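Lecture notes, part 5. Sequence design as translation. It can be helpful to think of inverse folding as translation between two languages: the language of shapes and the language of residues. The source text, in structure tokens, appears below.
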């Protein structure tokens, strides 16, 4: 499989930008809804390994026909490793372990909130992507706005929560590796989702059945949430939508939208949880929205866009 060139290319046509933007917004809406669902107070006795199984098993089975039709002989192994490791079972184990040390409210600021920065860094280091001053300003607004929306709790929590925060940042960097790997692999969105979910299922389930202490000792509600909200919505639909966004917008532009996840969670929480954001949070919401518009580059129609 021929590796796409990493150099400058012409800006995508409006329909492509439009479809990529719609796909990115669908992705972050699903992610934001998951954060709100978590804040409903749903607690779970499921282990990180059990969560990984519930997250990947059903999507893995659904995507098995797609998985079998992937041209494995021409797909470089490093792209397979980047996809499965960056967004599959290893990613899930890292993030779910982090949730055992830090509250769910910190996820938005440290996982999707920082992921665009990791993608931009890796795109610069690996692909040689360059960012103009407007996109750099957008990343700065994302950082400032993200801290205003969800960063306060990072400095007011228990002392031991730093372990969870570190794992969330590790998860953000892993997802960034997935983003760059998908962009370079040449796979379409469905094929990438199949590699992540079916590949994780093939790797994790047999090992877990032999060596894992699987009990699934949790309320039925929690198991349904993991299968439905995590597996079907986040693991399948959001992953396909994110892949479409990468194909139409590029890796760093699509990743910039992930910073909207805590913003969307905050907005959804207004009618659903009756939580009225503080004035500082509203300022952060506006800053993140402006930052995403600049960092994603979707408003530009001239010049060049990379990766």
């Amino acid at each position: 499989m021929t590796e796409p060139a990493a150099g400058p290319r012409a800006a995508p046509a409006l329909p492509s930008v439009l479809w990529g933007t719609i796909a990115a917004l669908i992705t972050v809406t699903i992610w934001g809804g998951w954060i709100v669902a978590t804040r409903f107070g749903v607690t779970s006795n499921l282990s990180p390994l059990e969560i990984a199984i519930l997250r990947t098993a059903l999507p893995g089975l659904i995507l098995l026909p797609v998985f079998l039709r992937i041209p494995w002989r021409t797909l470089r192994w490093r792209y397979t490793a980047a996809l499965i490791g960056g967004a599959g079972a290893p990613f899930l184990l890292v993030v779910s372990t982090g949730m055992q040390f830090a509250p769910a409210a910190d996820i938005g600021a440290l996982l999707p909130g920082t992921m665009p920065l990791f993608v931009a860094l890796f795109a610069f280091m690996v692909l040689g992507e360059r960012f103009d001053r407007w996109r750099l300003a957008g990343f700065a607004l994302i950082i400032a706005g993200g801290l205003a929306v969800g960063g306060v709790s990072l400095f007011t929590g228990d002392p031991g929560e730093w372990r969870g925060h570190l794992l969330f940042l590790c998860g953000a960097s892993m997802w960034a590796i997935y983003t760059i790997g998908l962009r370079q692999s040449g796979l379409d969105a469905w094929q990438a989702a199949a590699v992540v979910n079916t590949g994780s299922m093939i790797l994790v389930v047999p090992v877990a059945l032999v060596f894992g202490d699987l009990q699934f000792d949790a309320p039925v509600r929690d198991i349904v949430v993991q299968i439905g909200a995590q597996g079907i919505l986040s693991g399948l639909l959001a992953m396909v939508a994110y892949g479409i966004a990468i194909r139409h917008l590029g890796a760093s532009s699509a990743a910039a939208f992930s910073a909207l996840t805590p913003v969307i969670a905050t907005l959804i929480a207004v009618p659903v949880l009756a939580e009225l954001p503080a004035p500082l949070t509203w300022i952060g919401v506006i800053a993140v929205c402006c930052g995403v518009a600049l960092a994603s580059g979707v408003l530009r129609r001239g010049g060049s866009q990379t990766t």
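The translated text above is only one of many valid answers, since several sequences can fold into similar shapes. Confidence is low (pLDDT under 50) at residues 1-9, 301-307.
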